[in-house]
């Protein structure tokens, strides 16, 4: 399995969860979850590009 694939997929799932939380009454929690998800997504993408 390619290095960085798991964080990228996990970041996608967490970002989607955070985006759905933004539409509920938990906007602050949704913002935090979305931020963590985007961070995982970016770091996973960096690993995928570096370790080709």
Fill in the keyword field for this structure:
single chain; 52 residues; mainly alpha; 2 helices; 0% strand; elongated
Question: Mind explaining what this structure looks like?
Answer:
With 52 residues, the protein is mainly alpha-helical. 81% of the residues lie in helices and 0% in strands. Helix 1 packs antiparallel against helix 2. The longest helix has 24 residues. The radius of gyration is 12 Å and the shape is elongated. The mean pLDDT is 94.
Quick rundown:
This is Asparagine synthase. Keywords: Membrane, Transmembrane, Transmembrane helix. The chain has 52 residues and is mostly helical.
The residue-averaged pLDDT reads 94
Cα(first) to Cα(last) distance is 12 Å
The low-pLDDT segments are none
Q: Which class best fits the helix and strand makeup?
A: mainly alpha
How many domains comprise the coordinates?
A: 1
The whole-angstrom Rg is 12 Å
Number of separate strands: 0
Helix content: over 70%
* Major sheet details: none
What is the count of DSSP helices, taking H or I runs of 4+ residues?
2
The string of secondary-structure elements, in order, is: HH
| Overall 3D form | elongated
- Beta-strand residue percentage: under 5%
Protein name: Asparagine synthase
Transmembrane segments: 28-49
Organism: Paenibacillus endophyticus
Keywords: Membrane, Transmembrane, Transmembrane helix
């Amino acid at each position: 399995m390619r290095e960085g694939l798991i964080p990228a997929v996990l970041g996608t799932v967490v970002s989607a969860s955070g985006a759905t939380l933004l539409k509920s009454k938990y906007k602050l929690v949704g913002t935090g979850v979305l931020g963590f998800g985007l961070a995982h997504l970016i770091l996973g993408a960096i690993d995928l590009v570096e370790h080709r």
